[in-house]
Each structure stands twice: as C-alpha cells, then as structure tokens.
Write a structure and sequence with these properties.
9-stranded antiparallel sheet; alpha+beta; 33% strand; globular; 23 strands; 5-stranded antiparallel sheet
Length: 317
C-alpha cells in the first residue's frame, strides 16, 4: 500500500510540475503577444536601407539642387469642414446614410503617388507598440488619416511600409493589398506570393488584413462573407482606387443605436457606387477611425476611450 501511495504521489507531483510549466509557457506567450514591447526604429531601418543604395552622382546632385532652387511656391490650401485643396492634394468628404448606418466617403486626388503614405505608432515597427490614429496623424502632419491593418496584433502577414520590408511571413488564407510606386492597387493571395518578390517588383506598401472587396470593378466578396469571428455588421475602414492618383476611402460607424454597421458585401457596394475599380478592407470594429483636418470625423466605438490605439495608419499630406 505504501508503494502505491508513493507511486501516486510521484505521479501527481509530476502532473503538477507539467501543469505549472504549461501555465507558465502560456502566460509567457500571452505576455509576449499582448504586453511586452518589441521595437525597431523606423529611422534606423531607413538609414540601413539608404546606406545600401547607390550614391547620387555629382551631376545628378547638381541637377537636383538646380530643381530645388526653382520657384516652388505653393498657394495656401483652401480648407473647409468637408474639403481640402492645395496644389498637390484634393480631398472631398461626403457623409451619407445607408443600410441604417452613417457612412463617410472621402474622395482623394493627388499629384504625386508618394502622397499616399503609411506610419507606425511611435515611428517604430514591432509588437505591442500602439498609438491612436489621431496621435499618429498629428505626429506626421497628415491632412487625412485612417487606421491601417493593425499588423502588430498578429505574428504573420506581409508588412511593407514606404518601400521597406519588415515582415515576409505569409498569413494563410489572407489577401494582401499591394500599392506600387505608381500608387496603383492590386490584391494578391499571400500564400501564393513572396513579399520580397513584390517589393523587388515595385511594391511600396503592403497591408495584410482583407479581404479584397472589388477587383476590376466587380464585387469579390459574397453576401455572407465575413472577417474571422467578426459580427455580420461592423464599423468599417477600407480604401479603394478609382483611377490614376485617385482614391476613395470609406469609413462606416456601427455597433451603436444610431448606426448598425456594414457587412463586407454592403461595404463593397458602397465602393462600387463610388466608381472604384479596386477596394480593400482594413481593420474595422473598434479600430475604425477617420481623421481629417485635425478632427476625428466618425464615431469610434472603443469602450471607455472612443478611439482605439493601433499599430499603424495610412495618411495623405
């Protein structure tokens, strides 16, 4: 009997040890995923990339200086509550009511495709680095900004920002938005692509959330398709392209008494009605934020704060 008791005592002891080890491992993973910060300075990465690029020749540098000395005086921007216009950027904001939801549609035209930019929270790439969309917008002198794909909430999914590759691990079953150096949009299947190849072929931004909403002007989601574990009707943030240097942003309220929210199919219909040829769904729900001319335009639904802190933004300036 004593040997039996010893056997079970040892058995329970080792079971407790294994259970404790598993609990500690799980806790470590959760801390690493949601709490601990892993940060890479964007400035440091940019400096490294710049150091590997060819040095500009004296002749080219001289030409650049001559161009810079030419008259580049810009007219003062014309700004209203629903519009912005200067020599390089034109923005028009329209608010409409459809599907029992307040929907904000922003038409954007630029003279230079590089006016469409992205930024990281705290100007750093990494996990658990977050700021509100409005904070990042102000830090980057944006005129218009929306939340991005919240890359820091996941360990997978392509991340290319402003021509720099930060993460090349594909997220299975995910479509990525590729914005090339000409400012043109395309949508690719990550597991059938290579982030490095896309970068080598001219990608300037790659965002990983999805799905794609419009391809070649046709709706590419089904009426019952949804982002994993999300409700059918949600606050939404999405971006599309109408033509060369011509974009459209849609942000929709949701999960409130005033606004039900949109399904992905309804969101795609809004883009189709706006004339977009390509459109892509970004992080939504409590993350959805539209910032314009120094103000948050929509009604973010993050509990207790109104505006959720996220990893990144897309913006124009």
């Amino acid at each position: 009997m004593r040997n039996v008791k010893q056997f079970f005592s040892k058995k329970y002891f080792w079971a407790i040890c294994v259970s404790f080890s598993l609990s500690a491992a799980i806790a470590a993973v959760l801390l690493d995923t949601f709490v601990l910060t892993h940060k890479i300075s964007v400035e440091a990465v940019s400096a490294t990339v710049s150091s590997t690029e060819p040095t500009t020749s004296e002749a080219t540098a001289s030409e650049t200086e001559e161009t810079a000395t030419e008259d580049t005086t810009d007219t003062e921007p014309v700004v209203t509550d629903t519009s912005y216009a200067d020599d390089h950027l034109s923005i028009s904001l329209t608010t409409t009511r459809k599907y029992d939801t307040d929907i904000y549609i922003v038409d954007v035209q630029v003279s230079d495709p590089e006016a469409l930019k992205t930024a990281f929270a705290e100007n750093s790439y990494g996990r658990n680095i977050k700021e509100t969309t409005s904070q990042m917008a102000e830090n980057n002198q944006a005129v218009l900004a929306i939340n991005g794909d919240y890359y820091g909430f996941r360990n997978k999914g392509f991340v290319v920002r402003n021509g720099v590759l930060y993460r090349e691990t594909a997220n299975t079953g995910t479509e990525a938005l590729v914005i090339d150096s000409n400012g043109d949009f395309s949508i690719v299947e990550e597991e059938q692509s290579s982030a490095q190849d896309l970068l080598d072929n001219g990608a300037r931004q790659i965002l990983s959330f999805g799905p794609g909403l419009l391809k070649d002007g046709e709706i590419s989601v089904t009426e019952d398709e949804e982002v994993g574990q999300a409700m059918q009707s949600n606050p939404r943030t999405a971006i599309g392209q109408i033509g060369e240097n011509h974009y459209v942003i849609v942000v929709a309220d949701g999960r409130t008494e005033a606004s039900e929210g949109l399904s992905l199919y309804e969101l795609a219909e809004v883009f189709q009605d706006a004339g977009a040829t390509t459109a892509y769904n970004l992080d939504g729900g409590g993350s959805s934020t539209l910032w314009f001319n120094g103000n948050v335009i929509n009604q973010p639904t993050e509990k207790g704060s109104g505006e959720r802190s996220v990893s990144d933004i897309l913006y124009f300036n």
